[in-house]
Amino acid sequence: MELGEQARDFSMPDQNGNTVRLSGFSGRRVVLSFHPLAWTRICAEQMKALEVNREAFEELGAVALGISVDSVPCKRAWAGSLSIKKTLLLADFWPHGEVAQMYDVFDGTKGYARRANIVIDEVGRVIFAAEYPATTMPDMQDVKGALQAHERSRREEEMPLA
Questions:
Q1: Residue ranges of the chain with pLDDT lower than 50?
Q2: DSSP for the chain?
């Protein structure tokens, strides 16, 4: 996805089987954190980083969603094993990788999402997108930096001219 592009709406189940829609977060910023597969070391670190940074994201008006092609029961068991209690882990299981394909991060050869973070602003525009090598843990400081920069620019736009 290109910066400034309108994010495409989607719905898919979280680890508890609840349906989550992107449009349900209207007025908030959303971090889409794609990862290849549950039960792998770097993916686990990536999802734990979302949980650890959850409050910082909330202070910046954002919610983070972890997304992979794994099934709901797999995501539920994995969230429990990682002690993830508040971060939503979404199952892009069926149609297989549909949302990852929508956001151009699906690896059709391997059958799973590439590692990526995409930040969507409160009106549904992409304001940050980064893809990472499969063996690299994404830096959540990049995501927080994008959220902070967006907040600064939004505040500057709201300031009255002197």
A1: none
A2: --TTPBPPP-EEEBTTS-EEEGGGGTTSEEEEEE-S-TTSHHHHHHHHHHHHTHHHHHHTTEEEEEEES--HHHHHHHHHHHT--SSEEEE-TTTTTHHHHHTT-EETTTTEEPEEEEEE-TTSBEEEEEEE-TTS---HHHHHHHHHHHHHHHHHHHSPP-
CATH code, domain carrying 62 = 3.40.30.10
* Domain, as residue range, for 29: 11-158
Q: Answer whether residue 4 is part of any domain.
A: no
Residue 47's pLDDT is 98
Residues annotated as part of the active site = 43
Evaluate if pTM is beyond 0.85. yes
Q: What is the pLDDT of residue 107?
A: 98
